[in-house]
Amino acid sequence: MNGIKLINAGAGTGKTFHLVGEALSVLDTGLPADGLLITTFTHRAATDIRQRLRRALFASGKTDAAQAVLGGLVGTVNSVCHRLLCEYAMEAGLSPRLQVLDEQESSDLFRIATAEALEQHAVRLEPVARRLERDGGGSGHARRPDWRDDVMAVVSLARSNLMNEAQLRQSAQQSWQGLAKALGSADMASPDQQLDTILPETVSALLNLRSTKKATQEALRVVQPCLNRVHRGEALAWTEWVRFAKLKPAKEGQHWVAPLKALGEQVLSQPGLHEDLQALIHGIFDCATQALDLYQDYKRRHGLVDFIDQENLILSMMEQHADFREAIHARVQQILVDEFQDTSPIQLALFLALDNRVGRSVWVGDPKQAIYGFRGADYPLMDQITTQVRQTQSLTTSWRSRARLVDFCNAVFTRVFHERSPEDISLDLPPGKDAEGGWLEAWHLHGRSGDEANRALVKGIVQLLEQRPELQPGDLAVLCFQNSHCQSVAAALEAAGIPASAQQGRLMEATECRLALAALRYWQDAGDTLALAEIVALSRQHPANASWLEALITDDARALDDWRRDPLIQALEDSRSRWAVKASPTDALLMAMEAIHLIPTVQAWHRPLRRMANLDALRGCCLAYEARCRLYHRPATLAGLIRHLQRDETRQPPLQGDQSVQVITYHGAKGLEWPVVILTDLDREISGSGFGVSMTASTGLDLNHPLAGRTIHYWPWPFGTQQRFDPLEQRLSSQPEHREAIDRAGDEARRLLYVGMTRARDGMILALRRQVCKSSSKLNTRWLDELVDEKGIAVLDLDLEPGEQPVTIGNTPIPINVKHLI
Questions:
Q1: Cα of 216 vs its chain's centroid, Å
Q2: What value does the CA radius of gyration of the chain take, rounded to a whole number of Å?
Q3: Do 489 and 663 meet the contact criterion of CB atoms below 8 Å apart?
Q4: Where are the alpha helices (DSSP H) in 345-443?
Q5: Contact 803, 425 (CB under 8 A)
Q6: Which of 46-60, 96-110, 140-154, 615-629 has the lowest mean pLDDT?
């Protein structure tokens, strides 16, 4: 650890510039350029750093050093590991021609390789999962959680933390012990017998009331289907018992439901509930253990590795192969780590092992922007390690934002991140740079629904572009928490005539992709009349486009014959007859598209740039299919491509360009900046919970073995769609696992807001939901209210009247313009 220098680089402080400067400074001491090892979070960042280094070296006349950079280890962690494994394949016991699975391929292959384990455990787990409503049933928003996804989550954490079978068994035991303690004793006597008596009596009493009151009818709708299931010999899901506890009929029925209600309130003490939860927890870990073995065996037999394998192999070689350690010591003289806060546990262990041998490391990043926990980054572990680094430096100059935005963020986050040193948070303006000015606005979006709030948001954006003519749509970014909200905001902007870019729905749902796929299907099989009908219905180039349905209803055989004689369809058939034997699947798609004049067609449609981007993404999907076939040593066929595209879940790419408002998630905005940023979803509820899958850190950190003593925590929520049960909530309040989960959720929510509030250069807008009732309205700022000081007091109160005025943060007044949009 003595060789590590930690650089805290706040948002907009020139992190990449400083990292390149650190590399250049080392090279000035005589270090060879190919002795650098630089890791980045993205390929784009690696390319940027490599180009900046080479430009600076060329500019200073160091041509040889600039060329030598190309021989250095500069790239993402996985690309660097891949290169090392190729060079030292013999030591790792691998072929020099590694076949590396990307994330999607790894996920697909895992499902193939582990189907046996899931099938075996399903016999025992599926009945339990149904009672706990974790069987994956239902569809859309009503789809229930799936225990198989829990297995995947456990496997993912186990692999990224290098956990073995014994550790997984220990994790299962600790998980169940903690949950059993939260549930309390399982001492309820004969619950099923009580139910057999009480449930029929309750249903009979409610039916005899013949009530017309809505509350009583609703209670009957809850209990009567349960009685039917009991009569069929089916076990009730545990969520039904919670529904019994929540029964609220009208006064006339309260006496009759009281016994059943009391029975439901005791569900936590039912032995059957405890048995099901214990069985599911141990079953999930047992299945995960077997799945891991099957997956590793499958890859070993087929000569495949994935990203985690690469990292694990390099880490193992650093620990076990003296020759490899010496080779690294001779080759690498300086390590530089970009975005250290986003690294996974195994990557942190690898960086420590490398530094232990090299002895010179610079880690650059910003713990306040650690927001990728859902991707495997582990903030608590990272914090444990970095707090032991003695040599630290903070970059304190903001090169991004103007004065008012810097003052605002300083005032807010020095209070919110009060446990950190102020110099790690508070930023200064650069001397000699015109960074004065900047502006802040708070928009109160009036409305009863999300659609009304979106319309108010669009109204504000229209007014903003009118009042500030120097702004173009491409100067604006709207940040949302979820992709679904991005899509609805983009749709509302488009409806108002403002071009907007957001990741849309499935690629294959786009009209132009459906038309391309229909052409490909007909290119493969002229007897596919459904494909023919789709071409005619979707392509305005076909003369029957406007009357296809009427023609089909009147005389379908004649209509199909007429359609086939059209030059557009004849061109498809001619193309197939000439090229069917020689064309690859991707070539066949392109020829089918050309035959029906798809490119000129979509260029005449609304939003041609988006449609062209979708067709380009479609071609990429085809190339990916062919590459996957090569990887798995199987033929790429036209029929296989069609099946692949029909099942493909790829999303439509966001449209880039200066003329489109960028609608993007907060997570997706990290590392980016815009002249104006609008923050939405500030009303979302932050709800941490001890239920789910997460890592539990060891009590003491061993820097030589940083992943030792870690366990996986898994509590399955037992009550399905009943997302709250007060008796359980009361018990959970005293459980450390639950309190820690709530604290983690709040901490990550605050870091995510920091990322959002530091994206803007000139202006920032806080778009707040004002819920409108019949005679009043209320500002909803639940997410914003997570920004609290050391006393737990919210630092921002934006429930203000319209107009320019100061908002006081601590003792700091910051001017802000408040607008109410209806």
A1: 42
A2: 30
A3: yes
A4: 345-358, 379-386, 403-416
A5: no
A6: 96-110
